[in-house]
Design a protein that fits this description.
By secondary structure, the protein is an all-alpha fold. Helices cover 70% and strands 0% of the residues. The chain has nine helices and no strands. The N terminus and C terminus are likely disordered. Belongs to the MAL family.
C-alpha cells in the first residue's frame, strides 16, 4: 500500500512560473541556434568555435537546471542553488550577447555570393535566434535579481551579479593580452597584468564559495573580507588605469596613434587599446560593487 507524501514529486512551477518559462525559451532558442549553425549555417576559426561553445554550453546547463528543479533533485546537490542559478544566468547573458554580436559580424552578409543564398538565410536565422537567446537569459536575470528588502542569494544581488561581469571583463582583457600586446616590454605593464590576474582569481574564488555555499565554514568573516577585497581591487585597478595608458600610448614609451603599417587583427596597438578600455570598465564595476556592498548581507544557504 502506497503512503501519501508531503507534496508532489515533480515541481511544476519549474516550468510554469515566469522564470521557468524564461528557461524553457532559453532551451528552445539555444537548441534552434546551434542546430541552424550546425545544419547549414556553418562556422569557422576561433570566433566561430567560441559561438558554438557558448550556445551548446548554455543549452546543456539550462537543461540541467530545468531537470533538477522539475524533479527537485537540486536539493540533493552540495550547492547553494539560488547562488548557482543566479550566477549562471548572468554568465549566460554575457556569453550569449557576445556570441550574438560576433556570429553575424563575421558570418552574415547581405549577398549570396560566395556562400549561397541557403547558407546565408540559415546564418541570418541563427543570428535572430541568438539575439532571442540573449533576451531570454536577460529576462531571467531581471526576474531573479534581488528586490529592495528581499532576503535572497548573494549572487542575485547587484554586487553578486557585478562579480560575474568583472570576471567576464577580465577574460576579455586576458584575451587581448595574449594577442601580441607586448605587455612584457616594461615592468610597469607587467604590474598591470599582475593586477588583472590577482583580481580575477580572487573574484572567481568569491563566486565559487558563494555558489558552493561554503562561506559559513570559513574561519574569517567572509562578508567583511569581500568588502575589504573590493576596496583593494578598486585601488589596484586605479593604478592599472593610470599605468597602462602611460606606458602604451605616451610617445616616450609607446605610440599615441595607431601605426599606419599595423596589420588588421595583428596589431599590438589594437590589443593595448582594448585592454585600456576594459581596464576602465572594470574599475567602474569595482567602484559600483564597493558602493552596493555596503547595502547587502550575505545569505549562504539559499
Amino acid at each position: 500500500m502506497m503512503e501519501g507524501t508531503g507534496g508532489p514529486y515533480l515541481n511544476t512551477a519549474a516550468v510554469t512560473s515566469p522564470v521557468g518559462i524564461a528557461r524553457l525559451l532559453q532551451m528552445t532558442f539555444g537548441c534552434a541556434t546551434f542546430s541552424l549553425v550546425a545544419h547549414q549555417g556553418g562556422f569557422s576559426a576561433a570566433y566561430g568555435t567560441f559561438c558554438m561553445f557558448v550556445w551548446t554550453f548554455c543549452f546543456a546547463v539550462t537543461v540541467f537546471i530545468i531537470a533538477c528543479e522539475f524533479t527537485r533533485l537540486h536539493s540533493c546537490l552540495s550547492l547553494s542553488w539560488g547562488n548557482f542559478t543566479a550566477a549562471f544566468a548572468m554568465l549566460a547573458t554575457l556569453m550569449s550577447v557576445t556570441a550574438a554580436v560576433i556570429y553575424p559580424l563575421y558570418f552574415v552578409q547581405a549577398g549570396c555570393y560566395p556562400i549561397g543564398c541557403q547558407v546565408r538565410d540559415f546564418r541570418i536565422a541563427a543570428s535572430v535566434f541568438a539575439g532571442l537567446l540573449f533576451l531570454a537569459y536577460a529576462a531571467e536575470v531581471f526576474l531573479t535579481r534581488a528586490k529592495p528588502g528581499q532576503v535572497t542569494s548573494y549572487m542575485a544581488t547587484v554586487s553578486g551579479l557585478l562579480k560575474i561581469v568583472q570576471a567576464f571583463v577580465a577574460c576579455i582583457i586576458f584575451g587581448a593580452l595574449v594577442n601580441d600586446s607586448q605587455y612584457s616590454k616594461y615592468v610597469a605593464t607587467q604590474w598591470c597584468v599582475a593586477v588583472y590576474s590577482f583580481c580575477f582569481v580572487v573574484t572567481v574564488v568569491v563566486v565559487a564559495f558563494s555558489v558552493t555555499g561554503k562561506t559559513a565554514l570559513l574561519w574569517f568573516p567572509f562578508e567583511r573580507s569581500v568588502v575589504i577585497y573590493t576596496f583593494g581591487a578598486v585601488l589596484l585597478y586605479a593604478s592599472a588605469a593610470v599605468i597602462w595608458p602611460v606606458f602604451c600610448f605616451d610617445s616616450k614609451y609607446g605610440s599615441p596613434r595607431r601605426p599606419g603599417l599595423c596589420a588588421k587583427g595583428k596589431c599590438p596597438w589594437d590589443s593595448q587599446l582594448v585592454i585600456a578600455i576594459f581596464t576602465y570598465v572594470n574599475l567602474l564595476l569595482y567602484v559600483l560593487d564597493l558602493a552596493y556592498s555596503q547595502r547587502i548581507r550575505f545569505v549562504s544557504h539559499i
